[in-house]
Amino acid sequence: MLAPTLIELAARARADLRLGVPICVGGVTLAAAETLSAERLEALGRLGPLTIALTDRRAQTLKARVYDGDISRISVPQGADLAWLRALADPADDLRKPMKGPLLAQRDGDAVPWRTAIALAKAAQVLPAVVGVEVLCPDGLTQLPAHLPPGAAGLPRDVAAARLPMAAARAGRLHVFREDAGGEEHYAVEIGAPDRAAPVLVRLHSACFTGDVLGSLKCDCGPQLHAALDAMGQGGSGILLYLNQEGRGIGLANKMRAYDLQDQGFDTVQANHRLGFEDDERDFRLGASLLKRLGISRIRLMTNNPRKIDMMQAQGIEVAERVPLNVGRGPDNAAYLDVKRDKSGHLR
Q: What residues sit in the active site (predicted)?
């Protein structure tokens, strides 16, 4: 078969959105507001009346009506330029320029293609706002159905594994997995030789460039990473899954946008909502999938996040014990950790 599969088309669509290239979803031709150029905006406008779709979180911040549940479709007024669209998508200047309306939200028509497009924008790690027009798909653009079935992002596949001596344990092994159609890579750090017949000490760790690599004091990610590896080394075995879901799944660029909003006085959850994201966009089913590939079905899970426990058990991974991981608290991240506890339900 030479034609691309639906999974491959979805991957191509995510890449196009990052590049600012329009795609077609159902009967809508659209592009990401963040990456769209003025020339392509003008070309889209020549096809018909434009609409910008935002998440309900972003629409609520803008005081726009939400008639489609989790998204809002807003009519773009005649003469609106790229700066106006970007201001709706990006909250960076909300406090300096709060008035952007009146915003006319649409009630009629099919919201499904727009909802799918916003999900693709999130997966592409651009701002979740798309601009488009309901029109037959122009030639040459990536085309997708209005609704993408579960699993359209693909599953992680084994790529490579090799012995890796580490500071935490000389008996180490690194497994590399890659999502179908060239998606993200995720890693399993195997310490020692875990006994698959007994509950294995496991940590699901989401990538945090600022904390893991730069030693950021704004979060506790770096200390948690190293404490987990040390505990596995001292205990003789364990598995640390290093999942490339930076910034709770919104990507590093959007995490920096959230940090900028935090400097304006918003907490972690409020910043995510202003950007148009949920509190946490990660999908922990990925971790369960990797554990199954490693032949692990019973675990002692190092976490403070009850969502991870619930998701592991829902995916058929037995959590025999929760192992608390309370490290790295300091004056720069105390408020952040309190928000995780008070708003996200994290345990101590």
A: 280 (proton acceptor), 282 (nucleophile)
The reply, when asked if residue 190 is annotated as ligand binding, is no
Whole-angstrom distance, CA of residue 258 vs CA of residue 60? 17
Active-site residue flag, 282: yes
Q: Kindly report, residue by residue over 235-264, the tens digit of the pLDDT.
A: 999 999 999 999 999 999 999 999 999 999
| Residue 203 assigned ligand-binding role | yes
Phi, psi (degrees; rounded to nearest 5) at 345? 75, 20
Model confidence band, residue 320 (pLDDT cutoffs 50, 70, 90):
very high
Query: Amino acid letter at 127?
Result: L
In 3D, which of 143, 110, 147, 115 has the Cα closest to residue 129? 115
Residue in 110, 267, 282, 307 annotated catalytic: 282
Contact in structure between 50 and 150 (CB atoms under 8 Å): no
Q: What is the pTM of this model?
A: 0.94
| Per-position DSSP letters for 282-315, written without gaps between them | --THHHHHHHHHTT--EEEEE-S-HHHHHHHHHT
280 is annotated as an active-site residue: yes
Question: Considering 40, 280, 283, 300, which one is annotated as catalytic?
Answer: 280
> Is the bond into 102 cis (omega within 30 degrees of 0)?
yes
Whether residue 221 is annotated as binding a ligand: the answer is yes
Name the token pair of 81. 């330029």
Q: Is 24 known as a binding-site position?
A: no
Q: Are 266 and 339 in contact (CB under 8 A)?
A: no
Q: How many CA atoms lie within 13 Å of 344's alpha carbon, on the beta-carbon side?
A: 25
Residues 187, 174: Cα–Cα separation, whole Å: 7
